[in-house]
């Protein structure tokens, strides 16, 4: 989908939009948003949300030999369709400061959402330097690009930093904006640095910069190596007979799991306030991984104990045992509330992954792939 650059700026830009999204026709000039991490779960939901509000949405994507735009393919519109194509993609990287400043100068966004990350906690123990470079220093590079662009141009840019409940780490619940951080992984420590860089740029330079401290948020678009999606993908395949076992780590960890589609609205609301601030976004309900297994397997009439085996390779060197947010500030100030609860979220994910497994089964039965392959 994305076109290779031939050196001219317009050719390096791919433009996307949605036929399926009801786009508001604003009476004022369109607002312009820039999203890092647009190809991720949150980036795709935020793009849909902002297009629905009448924004022009620009996304920064990393160069890869394979396209990784599956989550936004459904909102693709050919760039030649100039009036309809309101989503545009540009090659850049949080590790490349010059690319960040250049795209800010070209796009001149009203709002910047920094969602990009190496976001897998367990993987951050394997690639700690890279995680810190992207998550911590990457946020600093983007803040500095925003600061220098606004100083030079006199324009105002509102900045959203994707923070994480992982920053609370071993501090017991309920966790709110005033709860001390005690990070338990390179990922979490990097998110703490990004959080404080954002606070510092707000205090030092008067930047309109907000931290959203989001608790776990899932969806049918969740990456397949996060525990919820790993479970629902395997469950679908077990149900249709493509596999029998699911290998997991610590089942006693408790998380406050919400729906990603609900959480992107909170990000946007933070940037619509008069003053920049930091907010916890959470459902205020916690469930263990084991409870997730109970509800998901139970929904398809299966007993998880017949299928789940513990593999110590999925234990983390330091675990975060218990996360449960106190979102009262977001509720009061932003007027935000989550719409999708735990059971509905689980069912939404299982329903989709059962359909995917049924399609895989057809391919296996027709001899196109082996049962152990996941296309
Ligand atoms: C808010 C926060 O949310 C996410 O981080 P996470 O909570 O680490 O998410 P997860 O789904 O990888 O793990 C949840 C729990 O599940 C346990 N667990 C057991 N067995 C497996 C297992 O087999 N795989 C995985 N991945 N986890 C397992 C694991 O030990 C942990 O206790 C990211 O979006 C992060 O970017 C972020 O910011």
From TrEMBL:
CC cofactor: NADP(+)
Chain spans, region Disordered: 1-21
Biased amino acid composition, Polar residues: 1-20
Alphabetical list of InterPro entries matching this protein: GDP_Man_deHydtase, NAD(P)-bd_dom, NAD(P)-bd_dom_sf
Swiss-Prot/TrEMBL keywords: Lyase, NADP
Pathway(s) annotated for this protein in UniProt: Nucleotide-sugar biosynthesis; GDP-L-fucose biosynthesis via de novo pathway; GDP-L-fucose from GDP-alpha-D-mannose: step 1/2
Protein EC: 4.2.1.47
Pfam families: GDP_Man_Dehyd (PF16363)
Top-rank EC class of the record's enzyme: lyase
Coiled coil: none
Catalytically driven reaction(s): GDP-alpha-D-mannose = GDP-4-dehydro-alpha-D-rhamnose + H2O
GO molecular function, one term: GDP-mannose 4,6-dehydratase activity
Residue ranges annotated for the NAD(P)-binding domain, each copy included: 34-349
HAMAP family to which the protein is assigned, alphabetical: GDP_Man_dehydratase
Function: Catalyzes the conversion of GDP-D-mannose to GDP-4-dehydro-6-deoxy-D-mannose.
Family from the record: Belongs to the NAD(P)-dependent epimerase/dehydratase family. GDP-mannose 4,6-dehydratase subfamily.
Protein name, entry field: GDP-mannose 4,6-dehydratase
């Amino acid at each position: 989908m994305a076109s290779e650059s031939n050196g001219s700026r317009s050719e390096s830009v791919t433009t996307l939009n949605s036929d399926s999204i009801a786009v508001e026709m604003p009476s004022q000039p369109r607002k312009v948003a820039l999203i890092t991490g647009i190809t991720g779960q949150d980036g795709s939901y935020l793009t849909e949300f902002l297009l629905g509000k009448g924004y022009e949405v620009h996304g920064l994507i990393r160069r890869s030999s394979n396209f990784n735009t599956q989550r936004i393919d459904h909102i693709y519109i050919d760039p030649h369709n100039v009036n309809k194509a309101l989503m545009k993609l540009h090659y850049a990287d949080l590790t490349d400061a010059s690319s960040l400043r250049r795209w800010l100068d070209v796009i001149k966004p009203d709002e910047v959402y920094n969602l990009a990350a190496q976001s897998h906690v367990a993987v951050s123990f394997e690639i700690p330097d890279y995680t810190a470079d992207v998550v911590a220093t990457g946020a600093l590079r983007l803040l500095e690009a925003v600061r220098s662009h606004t100083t030079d141009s006199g324009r105002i840019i509102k900045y959203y930093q994707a923070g994480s409940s992982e920053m609370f780490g071993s501090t017991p619940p309920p966790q709110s904006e005033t709860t001390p951080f005690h990070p338990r992984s390179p990922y979490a420590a990097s998110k703490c640095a990004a959080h404080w860089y954002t606070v510092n740029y707000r205090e030092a330079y008067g930047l309109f910069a907000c931290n959203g401290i989001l608790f776990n948020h899932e969806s049918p678009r969740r990456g397949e190596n996060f525990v919820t999606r790993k479970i629902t993908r395997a469950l679908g395949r077990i149900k249709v007979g493509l596999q029998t076992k699911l290998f997991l780590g610590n089942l006693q960890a408790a998380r406050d799991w919400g729906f990603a589609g609900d959480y992107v609205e909170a990000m946007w609301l933070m940037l619509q306030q008069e003053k920049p601030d930091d907010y916890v976004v959470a459902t205020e309900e916690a469930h263990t991984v084991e409870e997730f297994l109970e509800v998901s397997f139970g929904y398809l009439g299966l007993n998880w104990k017949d299928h789940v085996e513990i593999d110590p390779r999925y234990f983390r060197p330091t675990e975060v045992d218990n996360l449960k947010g106190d979102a009262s500030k977001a509720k009061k100030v932003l007027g935000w509330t989550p719409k999708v609860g735990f059971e509905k979220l689980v069912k939404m994910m299982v329903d989709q992954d059962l359909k995917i497994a049924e399609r895989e089964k057809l391919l296996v039965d027709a001899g196109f792939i082996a049962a152990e392959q996941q296309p």
